[in-house]
Amino acid sequence: MKYSILKSWLPFALIITGFCALVYGTVQQNYRQSLNDPQIEIAEDASTELAKGALPQSVVPVKMIDIASSLAPYVIVYNENLKPVAYSGTLEGDAPVPPKGVFDFTKQNGENRLTWEPKADVRSAIVIRYYAGEHSGYVLAGRGMRQVEKREIKLEIMVGIAWLVLIVGTFVHITFFEIVRKRN
């Protein structure tokens, strides 16, 4: 009887697991991808202005943002040699610089969107755009991920609870009907 219960329940368990994974993956990706929206706009607008000859300081907000503690968007402009020339985002008082490979990919593809962890427990959703003009370089627009990561944890808990309730519920249901069926 144990094997018949397992045989009857296993397809339900696989379907439930698949749907829960689909729900989690879809919502998590929506959270993460929409986190980039302001940075995409900021990086596109700033790189367009810089390509037209604007000064780096003119596309960077005046207010300094400590990226370790703030959720506010920040901008960093790097020259072709990957040196910060204007910035509103700081980490421990300086403008942080992503690894060279990030810039290489950006130059080759025009844009790069990624999660960056310049220091343990400091995570930013960043968009980097390459610009060419009289002077060439890169614009990085980023913002902290803390709120979205909190939402993702709540999502994991909600989907996990739903998965557990459905798995246990279907197992109990199938076990009950298998016992009833065997008695008749």
Explain this structure to me?
By secondary structure, the protein is of the alpha+beta class. It has 2 domains: 2-29 and 150-183; 36-144, PAS domain (Beta-Lactamase, 2-Layer Sandwich). 52% of the residues lie in helices and 22% in strands. The chain contains 4 helices and 7 strands. It has a 5-stranded antiparallel beta sheet with strand order 3-2-7-6-5, with helices on both faces. Helix 1 runs antiparallel to helix 4 (146-183). The longest helix has 38 residues, at 146-183.
**N- to C-terminal separation?**
14 Å
Helix and strand string, N-terminal first?
Answer: HHEEEEHEEEH
Residue share in helix: 40-55%
The total domain count is 2
| Biggest beta sheet summary | 5 strands, antiparallel
Average pLDDT works out at: 94
Shape: elongated
Name the poorly predicted regions. none
H/I helix tally = 4
Per CATH, the architecture of the largest domain is 2-Layer Sandwich
Beta content: 15-25%
Tell me how many strands there are.
7
What structural class should be given to the helix and strand makeup? Answer: alpha+beta
